Amino acid sequence: MTNLAPNEKYTNSAIRPGEPDPYPQKPVGEYITDVVSNNWVNDEYKLMVLKAPEKALTAYAGQFFHLLCPSPDGAEVWMRRPMSVYNVDKSAGQIEFLYKCEGRGTKGMGTLEAGDTFNVSGPLGIGFNLDPAWKNIVVLGRGVGLATLAPLSLMAAENGVGVTAILSARKTELVMSEDLFKGIGAATIKVVDTDGSSDVSNVEKILEGLILNGKADAFFTCGSSRLLKLMQTLGKSHGVPGQVAMEQIMVCGFGACYVCMRTFEVDGAQTLRRVCREGPVFNMQEAVGW
Ligand code: FES
Question: Helix (H, G, I), strand (E, B), or coil: what is residue 237?
Answer without folding.
Answer: helix
